[in-house]
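re the bet — no i am not wrong, look at it urself. input seq straight from the record:
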Amino acid sequence: MKYTEIKKLSDLQFYGQTGISWSTFYIMLDELKLKQSTKNAKNRPPKLGLEDHLLLYLEYRRNAIKCFDLGRRYGISETSALSIIDSIEEALMLSGKFHFPQNIWVHQETHQ
């Protein structure tokens, strides 16, 4: 489900779809924006926004959807879906702010 559609969901509905809260989603998004702003992007603009990249990644992790199917859902190739998953995971892991217990991302501040 793309960001334009999912942003209408309540907190509970969003959690059911992604496994995280809206607040954690926006914390993750801020981390990704920070990482993206430090890249020297000379490539063409991506077909999907960063919000959709994060949602694609969360769908992959939450529901174990194959890259082929995610690509079809988001209108991109299987290879692009895999590339997005890899880059989002790397950025979130390198931030050191998140861990991935029991197939759900959790912001570390909530468990200190």
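see?? Residues 103-112 have pLDDT under 50 and may be disordered. told u. also Helices lie at 3-6, 11-18, 22-38, 50-63, 67-74, 78-95. so pay up
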